[in-house]
Amino acid sequence: MTVKLRILGGGREVGRAAYLLEGRERVLFDYGVNFDEKDLPQLPLHVRPVDLDAVVISHAHLDHVGAAPYLFITGKPKIYATRPTLDIARLLTIDFLKLNAAVIEYDMLEFEKMYSSTVFVDYQESVEQGFKLVFTNAGHILGSTMVYLETSTGEKILYTGDVNNISTWTLSGADFLPVGVDTIIMESTYGGRNHPKRHLVEKRFVETVEEVVDKGGTVLIPAFSVGRSQELMTLLTSELPYVDIYIDGMVKDVSEIYLKHRKFLRDPGLFMKTVENVNFVTKASERKKLVSKPCVIIASAGMLKGGPSVYYFKKIAENPRNAVLLVSYQAPASNGHKLLEEGRLPELELNEVKARVEWYDFSSHAGRDGLAEIAEKYKASLKNVILIHGGEDDQEVLKKELAERLGGDVKIVTPKTGDEVVLSP
Fold this sequence. Notes:
GO molecular function: hydrolase activity; RNA endonuclease activity
Oligomer: single chain
Domain Metallo-beta-lactamase: 15-209
Strand order of the largest sheet: 8-7-6-3-2-1-22
Domain Beta-Casp: 229-339
Keywords: Hydrolase
CATH class of the largest domain: Alpha Beta
InterPro entries: Beta_Casp, MBL, Metallo-B-lactamas, RibonucZ/Hydroxyglut_hydro, RMMBL
CATH superfamily of the largest domain: Ribonuclease Z/Hydroxyacylglutathione hydrolase-like
Number of strands: 22
C-alpha cells in the first residue's frame, strides 16, 4: 500500500503546522494557524475529521493547535496530547478568540469538545490501536512531544514537532527513542543557523540586568507567556536572588499550569521556589509603582504587540537609566522588530527611545547543528527526511548540511504546502 504525507500547512513556511499521513491509517500531526502581514489568521488546508484515525497535537502553541477545534464543528476525532498541552492551549485559545472571533468559525465549545475527546499521554508512553504511537519529551515548552509512529504496514516515522535538544532552566532537552526510524518529519525553523552557546547568552543577560538595576534602573523583559517567561523567572531568581522581580500578564496563569504539571519540569522544586520568590502583579494600579523603582518586570507580550509590556515600555522608554531586553522571536512587522531596527516606535508615540535596548537569543528551537544531530541518530536506518516548518532559505542550508552528514542514500525533501510526499510505494 502506498504511504504518503500530505502537507496541509507548514510547507516552506513557519507555522500553520498540519501534516496528514495517509496509508492504511490516516494520522494528522498538528493542525495550527499562522498570521499574514495584516495579522489575520491563516488556516491549513481542509481535512475531513471523519477520515482521521488519530490527531496528534505536539504542543500548545497556536501554530500547532489553533485550527484543531475546527475538526469538532462536524466531527469528533480522537486526539492524543499531554495534559499540559491542552491546558495551556485552552488559555491561548481564549486569548486568540478575543482578538479573532470575527474571522474564526469555532468558539470555546468546540475547544471543550476537543478536550473531552483527548487521550492524555505522558512521556515514554505508547499507544496501540492497529498502529503504534510513542511520545517523548521534545524540550520545546511544557508538555511538548516528539511522536514516533509505527504504522500497521511497517513504516517507522518520527515527527519532531518543535524540538530543542539542549536543557534549559525549566526543561530537559529532547529525549530520543533507541529505535530504527526510516522517515523523519523535521522542523527547520532555525535550520539556517546555529544559536550562540546558551551559557554565554545567560551570562551576558544576567550581567546586563544586574548592571541596570544596580544603577537604579528598571529592566523590562517583554516575553512570551509560555516557556520563555518561566525560564527567565527561574534564571534570574537563581542568579540574582536580591533583585525584585515582577511578573505581569498571562504569565501568571501559565505558571500555575507549570506548577500543576510540574512532573514535566527538569527541576520541579526549583520552579516552585521560583514562584515563591517572584511578585505577581494582580492589579493595574500596581504597575504605576514599578516603573520608578530598580527592579525587573517580565510581562507579556513578547513582541511588544500588546499586553502590559506595552504599558511598561511607554513608561520607561525615555529614561536612559532603564533597559528593554527582548528575549523572544520578533516577527518582521512587530513593534519589537521595529524597535531593534529603528530605535524608535512612532506607533506608540515614541520617536526617540533612550532606554537601553538589546536582544538575546533564548530560542526554544534547535539550530542547524542540533537538527542535523537528531537526523544522525537514525542514520543507519534512515531513508527520508521531510523538512517542514521553516522558510525556504533556512531549509536549503539545512538540506545541504544533512546531505553531507547522511550521504546520498537518504532522500531529503522540502515540500511546500499542498504537496504530497510518497514514503513507500
